[in-house]
Amino acid sequence: MGVGALVTTGVTLAGASPSGAAVASAGDEILLDSYSGTDDQKLTAALAAAKASTPRRPIRLAARSHTFSLTRTTFSGLRILGPNIGWQNPEIGGSNGALPQCTVTLNCGSGASAWLVGTATTYDVTVAGICFLSSNGVTQFYHHPFSAGTSYATRLDTLTFFGFKHVLGTPADPFSATLNTWAGDWTLVGVQDTQFSLRGSDNWFVPSSMNYGWAGDNGGKYLMRFSNVAKSSVKHLYLTARGGSRGVLVEGTASQQGGLAFSDCVIEGQNAGDPAMGALIVVKGGGVSFTNTRLNFGMARPSDFTDQQDTALVMVTGGVCLLTHTWVNRATATAESVPVVAVSGGQAHVSTLMGMGGNWTGRPKTTRTGGVLVADSTVTAA
What we know:
Blueprint: H1 18-22, E1 30-31, H2 39-52, E2 59-60, E3 65-68, E4 72-73, E5 79-81, E6 103-106, E7 116-117, E8 122-123, E9 126-134, E10 140-143, E11 151-152, E12 155-162, E13 166-168, E14 175-178, E15 181-183, E16 185-189, E17 196-201, E18 204-205, E19 209-214, E20 222-230, E21 232-235, E22 237-241, E23 246-251, E24 260-263, E25 266-268, E26 281-283, E27 287-296, E28 314-316, E29 320-329, E30 341-343, E31 347-356, E32 365-368, E33 372-375, E34 380-381
Parallel strand pairs: 1-2, 2-5, 3-6, 4-7, 5-9, 6-9, 7-10, 8-11, 9-12, 10-13, 11-14, 12-15, 12-16, 14-17, 15-18, 16-19, 17-20, 18-21, 19-22, 20-23, 21-24, 22-25, 23-26, 24-27, 25-27, 26-28, 27-29, 28-30, 29-31, 30-32, 31-33, 32-34
């Protein structure tokens, strides 16, 4: 049932037992506010009703602010939906109360203390149409580690995350995803750490749009980490890695069977005067392609970092990387001599890479100190 679906028949009465909710007519939604008590108590009752229903009925939140503090174990068929569709961006002002439609403040931790936690393989989990806020800066939205199987056929649609430590997975324990789908319009702002740490295969991480920005001195942490992600597509991301953050890390083994494909993304610092200090993309292993990418405003002051030596906007130290049809803007503080692509291991295949912004006197530069670099005539290879 979609985010904008309406209740089709009867409504569970306030204070009714979960078993009473479960025997309502097939096709009903479970309205959170049909139960009494705190928001956590209401959600406990609604989850019990959903888990007991056959087929699974979705839980519908209200057009109001909610607060949840308890960790919840996911189960197959779990669906938690907001009351309406549309952008859920808390940064938008002057909207006369139209946005966001539904907010959920989470007072949880991360890892096994996240709000949603998978403890075994689940199928067909859906969360859609909600603006999530972290009250404490340490909250994680959803944790499903590989040690607990995989989150299979999960759909996440039109979500906002404000002030979160992590959204999916942690850098030390990535979210295990198989046949996952992202959809709708996403916003991630006020972030406290890497929001996405992912592993798995056969995924469509393809929202209509994603606006995700991170600023501050954070020691070169990445906005997104892809660890052993194969046969998956990533599209329509607008990633802003200002100051001390990096954009994307790709790592994996040589035995992965099918590449990770990025297309139609922007990966950049804020602008020419507010850039990223180091690399925007780092490829350490696996296989990945970047097609039709806008790659802007990086490598302004790589000496800030101590964890590694950043040498280019795109660093390839292992694996296989295909970079094609790429536009590059230089930051004001970044010399034209700074490479766009540097290869020290693995393979990089670079074609149709164009400098733009009016501050290039020649072609963008690529370098190789190890591995294999195959580049066309749109770049200068050294």
